[in-house]
Amino acid sequence: xxxxxxxxGLGLRGKVTNALTLPAxxxxxxxxxxxAVNLGPYTELQYLDPVTGIWRTQLWPGQDxxxxxxGANYRLANLTGCPVAAVITTALATGAATGIGVTxxxxxxxxxxxxxxxxxxxxxxxSLTCVTGVTGSSVGAGYLFPPTAIISAPPxxxxxxxxxxxxxxxxxxxxAAQVIIDNQGAGYxxxxxxxxxxxITFVNDPRDTxxxxxxxxxxxxxxxxxxxxxxxxxxxxxxxxxxxxxGVGAAGATSIMNFTVTAIASxxxxxxxxxxxxxxxxxxxxNIVSATPAWTNPIHEKASTFPRPARIQAGLASNVVTSTxxxxxxxxxxxxxxxxxxxIGQLLAITGVTLGTAPLLTIGGVTDTxxxxxx
Length: 375
What we know:
Elements: E1 19-22, E2 26-29, E3 33-38, E4 44-48, E5 55-59, E6 64-69, E7 74-78, E8 82-90, E9 99-100, H1 102-105, E10 109-111, E11 117-122, E12 125-126, E13 138-141, E14 148-151, E15 162-165, E16 179-183, E17 190-192, E18 195-196, E19 200-203, E20 212-215, E21 220-221, E22 226-233, E23 244-246, E24 252-258, E25 260-264, E26 269-273, E27 281-285, E28 311-317, E29 320-330, E30 340-344, E31 361-364, E32 368-374
Antiparallel strand pairs: 1-32, 2-7, 3-6, 3-32, 4-5, 4-7, 8-24, 9-11, 10-23, 11-22, 12-21, 13-20, 14-19, 15-16, 17-18, 25-31, 26-29, 27-28, 27-30, 28-29
């Protein structure tokens, strides 16, 4: 670590600059060293998850922190305009094999545009209901508070399942019905009919020194079905969501995008009239994919981004919203689908006003600059 003092500025430690600009769809592996990281409004700091091999977000856009970086497992990523996940809407995968990846499953996945590549997983989801009445299950005794439930990791490339415990009966036993599966995961092998190889460990609440002995068997489901789908490479930035086609089976999925708003579409107007001297703001709604998921896997699907709505200072001509003079103050981030726009402003009058159509928006990706200061 480099130390400075009064009148002694921080150096660049052999770097030519501390600014890093990434176009949409680009990533940058951070060289080894200690850094103060200041992310731009559209760039993430990610680490390579050693369990699944998926890049996961450590810092969201606009955040900052100090990190010791190994030169291989941390990257800056500007994924605006690119797909970042998918919601499986139809899981049928007849003709595919159980496994993780295109080679193992025999299932190709083709994006209609953008050249992204995808990893399908067939089988290996956990049942939403835990297995009771079999060897290896015990209610335990003496629990005073709900323990933390930790599910074992899947094989490389699989998706992690998660659970929590709700309530403890007055008997102090932990019942299988109290273990709530929050994410079914994908890619776990099957131990025997209806039972997964995944294990669950219960860690007592720090206030609980009495509870012990609970074990629960986790059920297996998803045989012959597409249980997960995620991008291996993001491809090039797009202005519309690609459709996904599968080489075998009858599966269906909706891509989840990381859109930002780049402009109000040229020539767009809104027939409502706003007070002279005011500045209407255009923002976005419908930022989350509306598709109904076939599985309970929120952290791997719709919660893969936390959309930040756009904020645009609208142009105003003859008291009507126009694209002329509009300023994108914040294009938003993690917008999962083409959003709708609404206008927030001071109307001249309400009585007798004909409601206009919402402004049209241009979506896609943007270039962004972050700062990596060696320390």
